[in-house]
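Board notes, transcribed. Complex of a protein with 6-chloroguanine.
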Amino acid sequence: MQIDIVSVFPEYFDVLNLSLFGKAQSKGLVSVHAHNLRDWTHDVHHSVDDTPVGGGAGMVMKPEVWAECLDDLLGLEPREVNADGESDGTGNAEHQPASDSASADTASDSDSQAPVHNLDTVLIFPNPSAPLFTQRDATELSHAKRLMFGCGRYEGYDARIPEYYRAQGVDVREYSIGDYVLNGGEVAVSVMLEAITRLLPGFMGNPESIVEESYTGSEALLEHRQYTRPAVWRGMGVPDVLLSGDHGKVDRFRRDEALARTDAIRPDLIEQLDCAQLSKADRKTLMALGWEVSAEHPRRLNRE
Ligand code: 6GU
């Protein structure tokens, strides 16, 4: 996987030479380049931002500098975009999404109006006002050939930048990593990169540990708690069932704990479960926790 990061603080990404990510680079699993956005400026001050049109506090990153940089990295020619958000003429064709006209009449494709992208290159902008980045996104993006991240600073970047590249046919995504504010996209990019690249085959020492984790697979549940030896530590024991050697009982205990912890901490994740995928034992546990499980998704009953 080829990874390009554009930032005004490219040194921030020196940490990627450490630990598992460093090893993955030496093994040739990933190749990372952090670029300095200021290398694409022409003025003496190397300025990348300007005041917001319409007024307001802070500075906004200028589209011209970003576009020179991204055109270079993506191998695109500058073009005009018309009022419909379409780019005129030919060129920049390599990023045009595959036409799905051939399959437009099949049931599975007809409900999706989104262009079909092939994950050759995905351009990602961290943005606190965008949809949340989830494990599902990490899994999808772990199949990309090339990821390009554009780190905004200050109050953000000119909204036309992602829009322009979408009009060029590029698969452009904007993601937030949570409901809090960071100073810039660098931290968010390192979070997304770690979530994505640890899913690459060969990245992790123990790939099985990925399967059991929270948020993995078709359902997202918080993981059960973990214990190691000693069985009693400072007077605190581990649950007896974990010492029983009965794997069936251990599995059920852990599954029930995952359901109970998710119910207590993230009930929104319970609401997204698919009831048809739940075992009889799962449904029994959820009913005991106050959920109704006969519809498509669990629904919380009034618990007084
Ligand atoms: Cl992606 N960027 C910034 N600046 N702040 C954030 C964020 C991203 N996600 C949550 N907070």
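The longest strand covers residues 2-7. The chain has ten helices and eleven strands.
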